[in-house]
Write a structure and sequence with these properties.
With 265 residues, this protein is of the alpha/beta class. The chain has twelve helices and eight strands. The protein has an eight-stranded parallel β-sheet with strand order 1-2-3-4-5-6-7-8, sandwiched between helices. The radius of gyration is 21 Å and the shape is globular.
Length: 265
């Protein structure tokens, strides 16, 4: 077994000039970000390259039963237990209710998740319980996936999801009574709602969520008059492209919304 990090080519051609390790690593990582599909092949070059790129290869996992959605390489879910510790971003959509165990297993195995999208037509209490144990910073899905965790909490010290900064809800006709627990999330800065029944809801959110910087709503929603509200044509393409860009640390729909708000203020 090669324990030196050298490839066979390096043994045959030892005189080939070597780049500084830091620069070499940066080149491989940049190339991997541009084309994630090339990562498996690049990992065969040398052990050190494998060590650099393996976390990137497995950082994003997408589970679905649809031809729609984010495009790009996603590692095989059948081997999730082998690489779960590398996964930071998980998106699950277009699954039937019979697959709830697959969702729960994924959330349980991937203990380092910071960004989760659950675009599902069903819910299970076990899903909420698994989410509450994760170091989440971003969540996309229905409020019901988070709400049960707040119904039995009596103090802010018990509040889960204190690290959440970005939340994207899919619920239509949402009321402040259903999401008033957002006021406990002191790090929350970005919120997306499909619609807002009235401007009073918007003001309730901004008043109670002191660090919230903006709210994204569908362009068919009633105008609120608040400069911190950004109206965009929400669609499946908008959500999927935005989620993947955020997971890849690219310019995302959140970044675009923030730019619009900054231009107004």
């Amino acid at each position: 077994m090669d324990t030196t990090g050298k490839s066979e080519l390096e043994d045959v051609f030892p005189a080939i000039p070597r780049l500084p390790v830091e620069l070499e690593r940066a080149i491989f990582e940049d190339a991997a970000q541009i084309s994630r599909e090339s990562i498996p092949t690049s990992m065969l070059i040398a052990n050190r390259v494998k060590e650099w790129l393996e976390p990137l290869l497995y950082s994003i996992v997408i589970i679905h039963q649809s031809s729609r959605g984010p495009k790009g390489y996603s590692p095989p879910i059948e081997r999730l237990d082998c690489y779960a510790h590398h996964v930071r971003h998980l998106l699950v959509y277009s699954l039937r209710n019979t697959n709830s165990s697959k969702v729960i297993r994924s959330l349980t195995l991937c203990k380092n998740l910071v960004n989760v999208g659950l675009w599902l037509p069903f819910h299970a209490p076990e899903i909420s319980a698994a989410l509450s144990l994760l170091p989440l910073r971003q969540f996309s899905g229905y409020a019901l996936s988070l709400v049960p965790n707040f119904r039995t909490q009596t103090s802010s010290a018990q509040t889960p999801f204190l690290g959440l900064t970005h939340i994207e809800f899919f619920d239509y006709g949402i009321t402040w009574a259903r999401i008033e627990w957002l006021a406990r999330l002191e790090k929350l800065t970005h919120l997306s709602l499909p619609d807002a029944p009235n401007s009073e809801l918007v003001q309730n959110i901004f008043t109670n969520c002191s660090n919230l910087r903006l709210i994204v709503q569908d362009d068919q929603s009633e105008p609120s008059g608040d400069k911190r509200v950004v109206h965009v044509p929400l669609s499946f393409a908008y959500y999927s492209e935005g989620w993947l860009a955020q997971a890849r640390s690219e310019r995302s729909t959140w970044d675009i919304a923030e730019e619009r708000v900054n231009e107004r203020l």
